[in-house]
Amino acid sequence: MTSRVFLRFKSGIPFKAILLLPRRSRLKLLSFAIAQFFLNIIDLIGIGLIGILLALGTSAKNDSQQGGFLLNVISFLKIDRLAFNQQALIIGLMAILLLVTKAFLTLLLLRKLNRFLSFQCAAITGDLVLKLLSTSILTLRTRSMQESIWLLTN
Fold it and tell me: Which residues contact 48 (CB under 8 A, 6 or more apart)?
């Protein structure tokens, strides 16, 4: 099953497009993917903090004892001696700060990725035009202008 999925990925268009890039550019693209992975982990931590905030609010509403996990998290954050309102405020602010920071960093990363890919696309297109123009004039005249444009853009 795994080998079939890998073979299907290997014969797909995205894999072939990545192979058009030089090795250094592929490594840079891999670094973008790793950075996006870590940004997603920040997102998960922020959503986890929202879950902890909900658990804290539920335990306060029911006037029940805080669970072991919730108690561990609150003591880990060193806010166990604070009042409930202060604990909720700190956890909420941490969640908001993490999620907003993640959104801002994702925006910056996507801008850099878009610029990087546009430069790579321009370089590949330039190489294709150079190869087309370096062929003999007789070969160029055998094709129509529309066919040459189609060959360059597809």
Answer: none
Q: In this structure, what token pair is assigned to residue 1?
A: 């099953």
pLDDT digits (tens, 9 = 90+) for 57-82: 887 777 666 667 888 888 888 888 88
Q: Is the pLDDT of residue 144 over 70?
A: yes
Q: CA 104 to CA 132: how far, in whole Å?
A: 42
Give phi and psi for 28, each to the nearest 5: -65, -40
Angstrom distance (rounded) from CA 135 to CA 128: 11
CA–CA dist 7, 15 (Å, integer) = 11
What is the rounded CA–CA span in Å between residue 7 and residue 32?
24
CB 59 within 8 A of CB 88: no
Structure pTM? 0.72
